[in-house]
Design a protein that fits this description.
This protein is of the alpha/beta class. It is about 25% helix and about 20% strand. It has helices spanning about 25, 55-75, 95-105, 205-215, 235-240, 250-265, 295-305, and strands spanning about 15-20, 35-40, 75-85, 85-90, 90-95, 110-120, 135-140, 185, 225, 245-250. It has an eight-stranded mixed sheet, sandwiched between helices. The protein has a two-stranded antiparallel sheet with strand order 4-5.
Length: about 300
């Protein structure tokens, strides 16, 4: 893998491209139906440092243009995964997966799954429940022949020793020895301050989240496109598994981060959280911060006497 070069413009004979500029400019370089997997998390129009908040209708119009181009480059057997959260205006929550849904359907795409990505860390709300999930909308063209490889992304069985108790298979193991389908609720840690993959990007994909999509929806040497590449995670997930990756990013700082991370991934020095690694359990690890200070006698006296 060390002979892979990081290019600045798309060409079909290349393996890795990170384009500095707008995603529509990159998409115009890509031929029709040449991308097996489009996977991205667009800006949510909530005023993050890398975006300018605009009226919702204008935001949706911009998204519509990008989606149209992504559908154009999507292969006949390909998949398109659009990972979104919520747009919030004056306390009112607008689920972006719902308002964007018609833009995909109007191009004849079928929604195969709404995958819930659940995580533990994020902003703490005081006037509503804190958001701890985002949604991955998985679309394909209207075909039965879309690529879906379940075996590489199976997860450990809950009861691997379970057997059939009746019928012709009585006494035989009932579970797939490779594991079970991971379902449509994925509990994967998001990239916050203590995460091994953390960079300066404020909304960074964890590699294992994209690896699950790459392994299940592409084959070796296929193209994976991220029109909002950010810190380059989608390209990294593609390269790590013998696919080709291309993405666009408009912020120069993030381009530099992405190029550095991709380079480290190519030479094998990038630190990533492995797939299927159990989540950190602070109680099991003996973390002293899990002991409530409010349950001691001194604390009780302080709480109730002021």
């Amino acid at each position: 893998m060390e002979d892979i070069k990081i290019h600045k413009r798309f060409r079909a004979d290349r393996q890795c491209v990170i384009y500095e500029g707008g995603c529509l400019d990159l998409l115009r370089q890509i031929p029709d139906k040449s991308i097996q997997l489009v996977v991205t998390s667009p800006p949510y129009n909530i005023g993050k440092e890398y975006e300018k908040k605009v009226r919702l209708q204008r935001y949706l119009e911009n998204q519509r243009k990008v989606i149209e181009e992504c559908v154009r480059v999507l292969a006949n057997e390909g998949s398109l995964c659009w990972q979104t959260g919520n747009y919030v205006d004056n306390g009112a929550v607008v689920p972006l997966d719902s308002v964007l849904y018609p833009f995909f359907v109007e191009h004849g795409l079928l929604l195969r799954n709404r995958v819930i990505w659940h995580f533990e860390h994020g902003l703490h709300c005081s006037k509503r429940f804190s958001g701890r999930h985002e949604t991955i909308m998985w679309y394909t063209r209207a075909t039965k022949n879309y690529v879906f490889n379940l075996d590489p992304v199976r997860v450990p069985q809950k009861y691997p020793g379970k057997k059939h108790f009746k019928g012709p298979k009585a006494g035989q193991y009932s579970c797939n020895p490779l594991g079970k389908n991971p379902g449509d609720v994925w509990d994967i840690p998001n990239v916050k301050s203590n995460h091994v993959e953390k960079t300066a990007h404020p909304c960074q994909f964890p590699v294992e989240l994209i690896e699950r999509l790459v392994l299940s929806m592409t084959n070796e040497n296929d193209w994976v496109l991220d029109p909002y590449a950010g810190a380059g995670t989608s390209i990294i997930a593609a390269i790590r598994h013998g696919r080709r990756g291309v993405g666009a990013e408009i912020e120069h700082e993030y381009i530099q981060i992405a190029r550095e991370r991709i380079g480290k991934s190519i030479n094998g020095t990038l630190k990533v959280r492995p797939m299927h690694k159990p989540k950190y359990d602070p109680k099991a690890a003996g973390n002293k911060l899990t002991k409530s200070p409010w349950k001691t006698e001194d604390a009780q006296e302080y709480l109730f006497t002021g």
